[in-house]
Design brief:
Elements lengths: L11 E7 L9 E6 L2 H11 L9 E6 L17 E13 L5 E19 L5 E6 L10 H7 L7 H9 L3 H26 L3 H6 L19 H19 L4 H15 L6 H15 L12 H11 L4 H16 L7 E5 L6 H12 L3 E5 L7 H4 L12 H9 L5 E5 L12 H8 L8 E2 L6 E2 L5 E6 L7 H5 L2 E4 L5 H19 L7 E2 L2 H11 L6 H36 L11 H11 L7 E2 L2 H8 L8 H4 L5 E8 L2 E13 L4 E4 L4 H16 L1 H4 L14 E6 L13 H13 L7 E3 L2 E2 L5 E2 L4 H10 L4 E5 L11 H6 L1 E5 L2 H8 L10 H6 L2
Parallel strand pairs: 1-3, 7-12, 7-13, 8-9, 9-12, 14-15, 18-19, 20-23, 23-24
Antiparallel strand pairs: 1-6, 2-5, 3-4, 4-5, 5-6, 10-11, 16-17, 17-19, 21-22
Helix pairs in contact: 3-4, 6-7, 6-8, 7-8, 9-10, 9-11, 16-17, 16-18, 22-24, 24-27
């Protein structure tokens, strides 16, 4: 026996109820305090107390009962352990709680509970003394660390006050633990030599205690994969810098356990490095004549675009190491920008890969994620190269004008390096962290407008405008490409359906109003579906008719009564009349299939009274005609603008009314009261129909002036005239953009004359010849010329405007 002095605990102890284990004398454990009683105990006794006695607690094992009321004190175990609180750690997340480090001193028995709230206090009786068996302290500590399956044994050991009884309970547990350790040692011994031989490349082995066998098969397979990966790295043709990085990473991988998250990340990185086409490329087909034929067969019109592609092929034929140009096709939807990119790849004999950039707002999508966390991946550029397997594909960057920006960076700025021929030969993806040569990649970007593309990015690209199609071009495209495609998709043949060109023109003018051909394609698909129903019904009727002929040959019709013959004959007639082939689609068939026309020629009806003019607007969807309406009423000289107008268009309206007020005497324009001050006791309301569509830009200036001049003069604007142009306060007409799209919109609407700024006359060269023949153009440098062209007989007033206006 040791000479250790006996420990005497207080006769009254606060009780700490714990469900995390059983504390034995001489052992140490951490327990979490989160219940109301235990929290109050810690705050009152441990945090405020200063004496040694205040840090001694009575620890009682407790199993929580979900059915019991949390306010009531649960049944207490009779035997507990007096413990010394060594450490108290508090936290407020996610809710207030404490963590106690406590050391068991000795056993005690509860005599009676003296107090239940705010925390229980009991009168206790000490059962043993620590100095009686100091050699068993280490055993108690080890037993306190047993798993939950020995919880009941630990409680029984706690209840055993006699030393002899305690040994009887603990010795069987120790024997069982020793047998488990011996069995574990036997399973490890046969593989000990193998582990020594492959320790350099094999991760730590995992042992399955359930079956007693090693799970080596997956590890052996991984080992073989690593050997194959190392061989691929040695035989790859990657640059020297990339090869050094791969060698370094494979050495790290050999020493890394499979359980580490970085193991899978490093292995994926090495596999990507091996799969990238560092020096693998395709050979370009440089036959200019064949390329021209292929482009003409795939795409009708688009001469400017096809000319630029052929120029690239010609230079590529003369110089093999030509860097890929950065082309950007800008035009409305449905004009074939994406399909042209695919045709370019087909012409060159290169692989094609499309990258959709619409809505991308993270620069990591372009440059990849850094390999600092699990789940990182390369950017879309490197991933696309891995997909196509060559280093000189055609990359189509679709919808580059719809890139976003967020807290994760600006992807448009990340594209600056990709789309710069002077920099992309040394493009570094964050995931790879080594340079990759993109100079042989042919990048083609598409956009609906250049207004939303950053200036720095726009400067790196060669802009090629792809305007909308004329009606004649749409008819050719429909009969060359769209109708054959729809017939094939719906299982029809030209012997079953015929769509004349005049019907196609009706579809274009009355059922679609667009710059491209997507709506036209959908309308043709609807026609083919309707015809497919008729063809299928006709085949069913023919089958029924064949069966009826068989019945007739058997003599069944001889038994038909006389009064039933007419009905039977009509039934036979219905069966004998399948739809005649081919089914011809005319205007009546269009109305039955597509419904009433969506767009009627409403121009002359809209301009049947003064104060209305037709303008031309450009949108990302192509050119559109735009009506401007004006009205006046008695008031205080206010100008009201409606129709979702932008600030620039509102300023154009104020410019127009100011110019007219300053020139009212010149044109003899007066208000309803005969005053040359057009706003004297008069309010003006300008409205731009299609109010749900936002409108902005300076090109409506001449249209607003013409509309207001018509209102105050009482004269009608010509119903076949449309106009566009920016104005100044001095009456000058300035040039605007989108002339070709605007002219095509006027042609689609059936107008005959277009007024444009004189400085835009050069833009008429890009207008197709048939459109120029159908339209007459007036170029104006000042508003006087615009007004003279917009009104029949010029803008001269022969009668008093006030008298004429009073009759309106």
């Amino acid at each position: 026996m040791s000479s250790v002095s006996p420990i005497q605990i207080p006769s009254r102890l606060p009780l700490l109820l714990t469900h995390e284990g059983v504390l034995l004398p001489g052992s140490t454990m951490r327990t979490s305090v989160d219940s109301a009683r235990n929290l109050q105990l810690v705050r009152s006794r441990l945090l405020k107390g200063t004496s040694l006695q205040s840090t001694i607690l009575g620890v009682i094992p407790n199993t929580p009962d979900p059915a019991s009321d949390a306010q009531d004190l649960p049944p207490l175990h009779r035997i507990g352990t007096a413990a010394l609180a060594v450490q108290v750690v508090g936290s407020n997340w996610p809710k207030p709680h404490y963590t106690l480090l406590i050391t068991g001193l000795c056993r005690f028995q509860i005599v009676q509970v003296l107090k239940e709230k705010p925390y229980p206090i009991a009168e206790v009786e000490q059962l043993d003394r620590l100095e009686e068996f100091p050699n068993t302290c280490k055993m108690r500590e080890e037993l306190g660390e047993l798993s939950e399956q020995f919880y009941k044994y630990a409680v029984q050991i706690l209840d055993a006050v006699s030393l002899e009884e305690r040994f009887k309970m603990t010795i069987p547990l120790l024997v069982r633990q020793i047998e488990g350790l011996k069995l574990l040692q036997k399973t490890r011994k046969p593989k000990q030599d193998d582990d020594k031989r492959v320790i350099a490349i094999r991760p730590v082995r995992r042992i399955t205690h359930i079956s007693g066998t090693l799970e080596d098969e997956d590890e052996d397979e991984d080992n073989d994969d690593i050997v194959m990966l190392e061989k691929k790295i040695r035989t790859s043709s990657m640059p020297e810098q990339a090869h050094k990085v791969c060698v370094k990473e494979i050495k790290r991988l050999k020493k890394m356990p499979q359980s580490m998250p970085e193991y899978a990340l490093t292995r994926n990185y090495l596999e990507l490095m091996v799969e990238l086409p560092w020096n693998k490329s395709t050979t370009d087909r440089l036959d200019i004549r064949a390329a021209r034929i292929l482009l003409d067969n795939d795409h009708y019109a688009m001469e400017k675009l096809k000319k630029r592609v052929l120029e690239y092929l010609a230079v590529r034929q003369l110089k093999n190491n030509l860097k890929g140009p950065i082309l950007c096709f800008v035009g409305p939807p449905g004009v074939g920008k994406t399909s042209v990119g695919r045709s370019v790849a087909k012409t060159l004999g290169r692989e094609f890969h499309r990258i959709a950039l619409g809505g991308v707002c993270d620069q990591s999508d372009i440059r990849g994620h850094r390999r600092t966390y699990v789940g990182s991946m390369p950017g879309r550029i490197i991933n696309g190269l891995k997909t196509v397997g060559v280093n000189n594909p055609v990359f189509l960057l679709d919808e580059v004008d719809k890139l976003g920006k967020s807290l994760q960076g600006d992807p448009a700025a990340a594209l600056l390096e990709v789309l710069d021929p002077e920099q992309n030969h040394n493009f570094t993806d964050h995931y790879l962290n080594v340079a990759f040569d993109l100079s042989q990649v042919l990048f083609i970007a598409t956009a609906n407008t250049t207004a939303t593309i950053p200036a720095a990015l726009l400067d790196r690209m060669e802009i090629i405008q792809v305007p909308g199609y004329t009606q004649e071009e749409k008819i050719e495209i429909a009969h060359r490409h769209l109708i054959p495609k729809q017939l094939e998709q719906h299982g029809l043949t030209p012997q079953q359906i015929q769509i004349p060109q005049v019907t196609t023109l009706d579809i274009i003018t009355r059922y679609t109003r667009e710059a491209g051909v997507r709506s036209l394609d959908r309308k043709l698909g609807a026609i083919c579906r309707a015809v497919a129903v008729k063809v299928a019904e006709g085949q069913h009727k023919e089958a029924k008719l064949d069966r009826s002929d068989v019945t007739e040959r058997e003599g069944c019709r001889e038994h038909i009564l006389e009064d039933e013959k007419p009905e039977s004959i009509s039934d036979t007639t219905d069966l004998a009349l399948p739809p005649e082939m081919p089914i011809l689609i005319d205007f009546h068939a269009l109305k039955d299939i597509l419904g009433p026309p969506m767009y009627e020629m409403e121009v002359s009806q809209r301009l049947s009274q003064p104060g209305v003019a037709i303008g031309l607007a450009w949108t990302p969807l192509g050119g559109e005609i735009m009506f401007v309406e004006a009205s006046r009423m008695d008031g205080e000289g206010q100008l009201t603008l409606t129709g979702q107008l932008g600030d620039v268009m509102k300023e154009s309206a104020h410019l127009a009314i100011s110019w007219l007020r300053s020139n009212a005497k010149k044109y003899q324009l007066t208000n309803a009261f005969g005053s040359f001050d057009l706003l004297d006791n008069t309010d003006i309301h300008l409205h731009f129909p299609a109010g749900a569509v936002t409108k902005d830009g300076p090109s409506a200036g001449v249209t607003i002036v013409t509309c207001l001049a018509s209102l105050f003069s009482g004269r009608l604007v010509r119903s076949d005239v449309a106009m566009t142009g920016e104005i100044t306060l001095r009456g000058l007409v300035l040039p605007v953009g989108g002339i070709k799209d605007k002219v095509l919109a006027a042609h689609r609407a059936g107008l005959k004359q277009v007024i444009i700024p004189r400085r835009n006359e050069k833009d008429l060269e890009g207008i197709p010849g048939n459109v120029r023949q159908d339209l007459s153009f007036v170029t104006a440098s000042c508003l006087d010329e615009v007004l003279n062209a917009a009104f029949d007989g010029g803008f001269t007033v022969k009668t008093r405007p006030g008298l004429l206006n009073s009759k309106l």
